């Protein structure tokens, strides 16, 4: 089941990169084999901090990272027009990315 979600996420990211390349290009900090991830962190109040992270595609093989993308899909959907957005604490993301 998680493999199917992994392939869907990978295809969505590849389609997004192709669309961005045709429409003017991918930002310079996103190298081939990587994608941008926007991390939204709510501190319990009205304040929401946003951080942009460039992640290698190999992280899509990590089940914990795929689970994080599934949570993002439930909240935001995969019909984004730019950066993939996830809601989590930056420390949690760093822990998951360290396993990639």
From TrEMBL:
<dbReference type="GO" id="GO:0009733">
    <property type="term" value="P:response to auxin"/>
</dbReference>
<dbReference type="Pfam" id="PF02519">
    <property type="entry name" value="Auxin_inducible"/>
</dbReference>
<dbReference type="InterPro" id="IPR003676">
    <property type="entry name" value="SAUR_fam"/>
</dbReference>
<protein>
    <recommendedName>
        <fullName>SAUR family protein</fullName>
    </recommendedName>
</protein>
<comment type="similarity">
    <text>Belongs to the ARG7 family.</text>
</comment>
């Amino acid at each position: 089941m998680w493999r199917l979600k992994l392939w869907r996420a990978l295809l969505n990211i590849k389609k997004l990169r192709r669309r961005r390349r045709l429409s003017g290009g991918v930002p310079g900090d996103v190298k081939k084999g990587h994608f941008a991830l926007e991390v939204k962190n709510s501190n319990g109040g009205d304040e929401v901090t946003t951080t942009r992270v460039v992640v290698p595609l190999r992280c899509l093989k990590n089940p914990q990272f795929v689970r994080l993308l599934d949570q993002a899909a439930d909240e935001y959907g995969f019909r984004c027009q730019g950066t993939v957005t996830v809601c989590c604490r930056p420390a949690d993301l760093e822990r998951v990315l360290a396993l990639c």
